[in-house]
Design a protein that fits this description.
Length: 198
């Protein structure tokens, strides 16, 4: 069981279910969540430091005023989360969280500055990255179908193994970003040019 207003250090939580629950002002340092279900759970003013969520379901979780430092999500469902409601310190934003082999579809990162964030081998359908600062971000192996990029800073981002993205280079900063064929052909569709198939 996980309690409100409790400080946990170096604990492993296995198969904990707190669906549609509420957790307020708890702190987790060096903790691991394994096979837990937090569907529609509200985490308010909680703090996660150097923690890992593995094989968890955090679909529609709410994170108002929560902070994340060096927190990883692995093989988890993190669908429909509005990350803009969390508290993000001014430094090391992108290194604060990382997603690996996760489903993060229908989530929102709008306007967040998250340099070097890792979103690797994920399903990220209909994710809102508008106006986000994703300098040096790593999207390797991620499906970005229907995700939104507008005024997004993708400087030096790695999309060389990403797929199904629609990024207009005239409306986003893709300076020194890495792309690979054939997916990179989609960049041309945002330009005011005529493609001729000969």
């Amino acid at each position: 069981m996980i309690d409100t207003e409790t400080h946990y250090v170096d604990q492993v939580f296995e198969k904990v279910s707190l669906e549609q629950g509420r957790l307020v002002s708890s702190e987790f340092h060096d903790c691991t969540f394994d096979g837990c279900s937090f569907v529609e759970t509200i985490f308010r003013n909680c703090r996660f430091v150097n923690s890992v969520f593995r094989d968890c379901d955090l679909s529609l979780t709410q994170v108002p005023h929560c902070s994340f430092t060096d927190t990883r999500f692995e093989k988890s469902k993190v669908i429909g989360v509005d990350w803009t409601r969390a508290h993000w310190p001014a430094t090391r934003l992108g290194e604060s969280i990382g997603f690996f082999e996760c489903a993060i579809s229908h989530s929102t990162f709008i306007g967040l500055k998250m340099p070097r964030i890792q979103i690797r081998d994920c399903v990220a359908v209909d994710v809102d990255f508008r106006e986000a600062g994703l300098v040096g971000a790593d999207f390797a192996g991620t499906d970005l179908s229907e995700s939104l990029f507008l005024a997004t800073d993708l400087t030096e981002a790695d999309l060389s193994r990403a797929r199904n993205y629609q990024i207009d280079p005239s409306r986003n900063d893709v300076t020194k970003a890495r792309f690979a064929l054939p997916e990179a052909m989609s960049l041309l569709y945002g330009l005011d040019i005529l493609l001729v198939d000969e």
